[in-house]
Automatic annotation (TrEMBL):
Every Porphobilinogen deaminase C-terminal domain range: 237-302
Catalyses which reaction(s): 4 porphobilinogen + H2O = hydroxymethylbilane + 4 NH4(+)
Residue intervals of the Porphobilinogen deaminase N-terminal domain: 10-221
Gene3D superfamilies: Periplasmic binding protein-like II, Porphobilinogen deaminase, C-terminal domain
Protein name per UniProt: Porphobilinogen deaminase
Classification of source organism: Bacteria, Bacillati, Actinomycetota, Actinomycetes, Streptosporangiales
Alphabetical UniProt keywords: Porphyrin biosynthesis, Transferase
Alphabetical list of NCBIfam families matching this protein: hemC
The EC number(s) this enzyme carries: 2.5.1.61
Pfam families with a match to the protein in the record: Porphobil_deam (PF01379), Porphobil_deamC (PF03900)
Note: The porphobilinogen subunits are added to the dipyrromethane group.
Biological processes annotated in GO: protoporphyrinogen IX biosynthetic process
Amino acid sequence: MARGLEGRALRLGTRTSPMAMGQARDVADRIFEICPDLDVQVIGIETSGDRWQGDLAELGGKGAFMKEIDRALVMGVVDAAVHCLKDVPGDIPPPPGTCFAAYLERDDVHDAVVWRNGSPFRSLDELPPGTSIGTSSVRRKAQLLRHRPDLHVDRIRGNVNSRLARLDAEHRFEALVLAAAGLRRIGMDDRIGEVLSLDVMCPAVGAGVIGLQCRGSDAAVVELLRLLDHAETRVHVRAERAMLHALQGHCNSPIAGHCHTTPDGQLSLIGMVFTREGGQFAYAHEWDTPNRAEELGAYVASVLGRKGARDIIRGIPH
Ligand SMILES: NCc1[nH]cc(CCC(=O)O)c1CC(=O)O
């Protein structure tokens, strides 16, 4: 038994979508491996972001997926929250007294095309002009249009399972663009079509990373969750999120960022900021040593700023 957790249950709070519940159960299984005596419970919390089917910006952005879970954590209704880091906003500070005690090892960061059932196509390059593609991500829309300005990219919301069901039922879109990692997490690997290269589709900051958040004062839980932390992923997350923070992007800003470690042990960070239709963008790629992740993130943001990123972000309505 982990020190300080005798007689306690560990309640993991998460969103209620199949992906979120699946992720939280995986985290519960990992904790069970370390601590077989601990009673780990997964508690689904419906957030306003999940209930609302309109434009997220009208709800104040991605924070709409956090509010109810933040509250449950701060109030002690749950002991830890399981989040896709990609959905944790960069411009809203986490509630005081909470911390991310662990970042799980990063999963695949690639986005993939998912064709509607019966689609004759196998690659974006084959699509005739005017073909409709569905995504609710401003980052994906901008990059799709950057490569294929002749495509028609439109919004589709809801959790991944319901989006896939609508893709097949409605014939409104030829395909969707979704995270390969997310599709695998819900057991829909077989729907992964063309996997887009990172040059064509630079990932979101924090893509493929699950973060475990808890109350900083809850030493026993902090100590337990720390055992799941992946040091290299944490360094990459620090660099990417320092960049996001310095750019002061909001939920409507098409921002992409990807940090990795090069074979010679350097940190590489790419940052991109796009206009909404992908017609203009700023790009920066810089390197530094792993102990300077935050400095690297701030530096990439400043280079992007010099290349016009701030004007691009300011010009986007939100
Ligand atoms: N915004 C929803 C969301 N949040 C995290 C993932 C996938 C897994 C990840 O990248 O962490 C997804 C689905 C998607 O973008 O297709």
